[in-house]
UniProtKB/TrEMBL annotation:
<keyword id="KW-0547">Nucleotide-binding</keyword>
<keyword id="KW-1003">Cell membrane</keyword>
<feature type="domain" description="ABC transporter">
    <location>
        <begin position="27"/>
        <end position="251"/>
    </location>
</feature>
<dbReference type="InterPro" id="IPR003593">
    <property type="entry name" value="AAA+_ATPase"/>
</dbReference>
<protein>
    <recommendedName>
        <fullName>ABC transporter domain-containing protein</fullName>
    </recommendedName>
</protein>
<feature type="compositionally biased region" description="Pro residues">
    <location>
        <begin position="11"/>
        <end position="22"/>
    </location>
</feature>
<dbReference type="InterPro" id="IPR003439">
    <property type="entry name" value="ABC_transporter-like_ATP-bd"/>
</dbReference>
<keyword id="KW-1278">Translocase</keyword>
<keyword id="KW-0067">ATP-binding</keyword>
<feature type="region of interest" description="Disordered">
    <location>
        <begin position="1"/>
        <end position="22"/>
    </location>
</feature>
<keyword id="KW-0813">Transport</keyword>
<comment type="similarity">
    <text>Belongs to the ABC transporter superfamily.</text>
</comment>
<keyword id="KW-0472">Membrane</keyword>
<feature type="compositionally biased region" description="Low complexity">
    <location>
        <begin position="1"/>
        <end position="10"/>
    </location>
</feature>
<dbReference type="Pfam" id="PF00005">
    <property type="entry name" value="ABC_tran"/>
</dbReference>
<dbReference type="InterPro" id="IPR050166">
    <property type="entry name" value="ABC_transporter_ATP-bind"/>
</dbReference>
<dbReference type="InterPro" id="IPR027417">
    <property type="entry name" value="P-loop_NTPase"/>
</dbReference>
Amino acid sequence: MPLTPFQAPAAPAPSAPRPPGLPEALLRFRRQLDEPAWCGGPAGLVLRLQAPQDGLDLQLAAGQLVLVTGLPGSGKSHLLRQLQQHALADGWRHDLQHLGPPGSGPDGLRSWRRLLHQARGADRQQAAQQALRALQAVGLGPLVLQRAWRLAPEHRYLAALALALARPAPALLLDEPLAGQPPSAAAGLRLLVRHALRHSGSTLVLATRQPAAWLDLADRVLLLEGGAVTCDAPVPLPRSQQQPVLALLRQRLLLRLKQAGLDLHIQS
């Protein structure tokens, strides 16, 4: 589903009335807490992700995608939590966002904010445009003026995913982003991941039981079995559908993943 040009809502949302009894200093402090903190990272960011207990030490350049795949219970979510705890951005203040599966923890949305104004960025107008395009890509365009607390849980989670990819942090950990999503939303999420890699230069680590859906975007694939990495395969660049080496590597990867019992019916 292509991203459509930004169209401003027909009528601007009225300003929320000032809550009675709150002093201006407290209101100003609340507004500061609600300000987006990230305005973009430096070019050439190298992220070091470590999971000492699992023997992993990954050096990832900006714009790379690592797939962490395996059957349920293989340790994917545990590995992402380990990576989050031991992430180090070389030469720059660490800024990493981790979005787990539904119900696993906070999704990062501001409950009192409209979806249109949830996206990160110093330029609020640009952030709103990116938020609208991302929400439209996953079929949530009609809800852009809804406040997060009004959303059904499944819509709130999908909105959090889309907004995390609208203006992604330099490093983003995603846990099963396609789980339970309808095909139209899954296609939109793939498009947003592609955009985050190619245009935002973010480093993504994505845990999934559907590796074949992401192989055309991946730079590296980690297969987990019984809590251990049993396959660590880099994917050569450039990513080209016609590149014979990549086609051969994909064939070998798919065979190895199939041997591990993964469902490969979604082909890249």
